[in-house]
């Protein structure tokens, strides 16, 4: 039961509110009344905005009410939206978000149901939940079962699964029935790899990268491999999967690296682990990520956390027949290191210029010198 502190309880006076912001129509009153009811406490502070959403060839106004209220002694924000149209009184006037499909249909995300409406403000479909579009697909729940829709509202995966998770860039998704996971993929999101003879949009597909899944109750994450085998327990606060088969996972607000087999390759001590570049990851630590280093795919630190800056990606040099990074030492100057962290130049340059990958130059004592000697 939430503890409500009396000094924050300020009742919302609709008469005062009307005089302060101008005439409020009946839908506005319904929205404000509903928000006050749903918050189950009085409102401490609030703001009121009218916005316009382009709905095919029609414009409709959306009213948004933001409320600041007490929860467990802290101030929390609640936002509710209402669609202002002549027919809006036929719908639940309170929504916390409004999404738009490629067809122009709107998804009105409510507290108990999500509604899909067309340009005539007619309810096309009702969902238990309709998620945000990720890589062109959205997970929805209908009658307690999970399915997936594309950006046009077309059902791609019928709602027959107990759980669906993880639409990744390869078009893959993990589907669960009872205790069995299945990896699904959509062939039209894999134009270079899909078999043209496959008639179904979805089927089993082997992949390289792991796929992350979230526990519906604890909201913690786990990893599956391409055979739909769960290789980690549900224990991570967030996971980022990489195309080389590794993944970065967050545990107790710090990040570590996980192998394809689910082995924790590093301690969870980093503030960030970047995507792999060839064979190494940029890692960072410190307030506002002020110290950087390199980490191998096997979880070995290739450099100490001694750089204040590292280039966004490694650069290939034909002269070296290898990749190199541009780095700046903490309280020091610039230099170059290899993909594996080997120091290639002294860290003595005030600035480094790369107009030609095979001929980078460094500024020292006012003069530019070539860093890779012929």
Largest sheet: 4 strands, antiparallel
Average pLDDT metric: 75
Helix content: under 10%
Radius of gyration over all CA atoms, rounded: 27 Å
Number of helices: 2
Describe this structure in words.
It is a single chain. The chain has 374 residues and is mainly beta. It has four domains: 1-127, no CATH class; 128-204; 206-300, no CATH class; 306-374, no CATH class. 6% of the residues lie in helices and 43% in strands. The protein is built from two helices and 30 strands. It has helices at residues 14-21, 26-39, and strands spanning 45-55, 58-71, 74-84, 97-100, 106-109, 114-117, 123-127, 129-130, 137-142, 145-150, 155-161, 163-165, 172-177, 180-186, 202-203, 211-214, 221-224, 238-241, 247-251, 254-258, 272-273, 280-285, 291-296, 307-310, 315-317, 322-329, 334-338, 351-353, 361-364, 367-370. The strands form nine sheets. It has a four-stranded antiparallel beta sheet with strand order 4-5-6-7, with no helix packed on it. The chain has a four-stranded antiparallel beta sheet with strand order 8-9-10-11, with no helix packed on it. A four-stranded antiparallel beta sheet has the order 12-13-14-15, with no helix packed on it. A hairpin with a 4-residue loop joins β10 and β11 (155-161). The N and C termini lie far apart (74 Å).
